[in-house]
Amino acid sequence: MPETVNENILPPPFQPVQPVMNPAQQVVVPTQPEALAAALPPAWGPASANARPVPVIQLSREDLILRTFFNDNVIGPKLRPYLNTSMFLDPVNQALVKVINKFDKKHKRSPSAQELILGMGSTGFSEQLVQKLGYICNTPMVGVRQDYLIEILEGYFRERMTENILINAAENVHDRHVDGINGLLPKLKEAVNFSLHTNLGLNVYSDIGTALALLKERKECIPSAINEIRAKTGIIQADGTIRCGGYYRKTLTLYVGQPNVGKSLILGNEGVFAYSCGYNVLYISLELAEDYLWQRLAANLCDVTMPEILQMTEEECRAKIDAKLRANQGDGVHGNLQVKRLKTTTTPADIEMYVDQFEATYGKLDLLVIDYIGIMKPGLSAAEQRSMYLDGVAKAEQIRDFLIERNIAGISAVQFNRLGYNSLDAGIEAVQGSSGYTETADVMISIKSDSVLRECGMFYHEFMKNRFGRNSDIFQTRCDFMRMKWFDATQEELTHYQELRTEADAVMANQMMSRGPRPPKRGAAPPPPPKAQQSAPQEQLPSRPGERVASMI
Hints:
Shape: elongated
Oligomer: single chain
Number of strands: 13
Strand content: 5-15%
Strand order of the largest sheet: 7-6-8-9-5-10-11-12-13
CATH topology of the largest domain: Rossmann fold
CATH class of the largest domain: Alpha Beta
Structural class: alpha/beta
Number of domains: 2
Number of helices: 20
Radius of gyration: 34 Å
């Protein structure tokens, strides 16, 4: 019998945890008045008792980048990959960047400002570069918060990176290099989302409150329509009951099955169920057209067959969907279910860009359904590997990283290879394509079928991998292909399936016995002759009460 599950599957509205900057991360910028006076232009001269106050010195955003690189041990290393001449317009700053890169190439590390000044002084560089570096690093900056400084630097990098990419795009358009434009799209997304904010993770002791808040937010997972899945992935509470499980945020769940077994049916059913519970769901298909996919989901929502959907008017269909939503949610705010067909050349970056459009229109996305990850393409950096294993790892990890960053639950599917066709014993080793899927996914559930299961309209499932419960747990469900629905199996249905399974196994056993030993294959060598019997006396086996003992010759 399935375990008892708390059926309160609708989570309360959660409050997102706002990141708080640790005061210990604030960087105190050192000031050296003597060095500053030496670096100032001669017109200003050194400070004296009779001299006027030193005028306020304004640093450009380029100057702030170099200053932060030398003076900030936290943000400086994050700036290093972006220090190239294309990011700077000031010729003096471009020359300083060239010196930094030359030092890095020679010594395999980044220089300090003092090392750079000493190096330039001994190698005959312009005195202007030395003065500019001292001016940048030693100019007093009082009352500037680190978060405001980061905001200025991020804005500059976004502008310069975007401008450089658009210039490259214009050149590709002029030269009609379409492939070059496609390669710039991920770089443009990186430029728009450029960030320098530092996250040191969670301190086990001082960040207890933050960690608990994140865990409470995460455990409000997106519910599954199947009770066994909610139970096997649920959280055991203090009173012994199981808090409803399903699809946790920041995780990837994969269904595994042979072709045409019903993977899309299950993915669509779970998307519809989450939508009917009030969640925002995005269903991305790389196989079906959007209108046909809508027909499937609408048949599930309206609880009618797919041919009947075509006979319904818009008002009739809308009324049935409204009744379904009111039955699950009342008159509260409903979620959104969006279907989108993308090409098989789609990468995780393409999906993330479409998620941005979804959230700009409908708000926070809760559940992402990808039908299916096996026919996607990995990101550009991973596509060069040309290895099935590495492609699978890249796709699964890129999707999962995206789910973690955006606090979204994700479900998709992969296929069994031929070893898993019509077999109830197929395991995780029979996953087609790449073992990278099994290494990355958080939960993997098999979808198995054979002639008996198809006669009963049922699926056979196994938890091939489960980070939130036991592995290898098995259960059965039933399905309705005409209505595209997936249900819990009743006890009567399970009993009927067991009876048919017993009969089928008995018939198969009788057939195997009646066939006898298989004849040798054509062209096979004849079996060797039996060995000559030994003339030595043999030991008589002891008899049991009531058992006849055959004589041994």
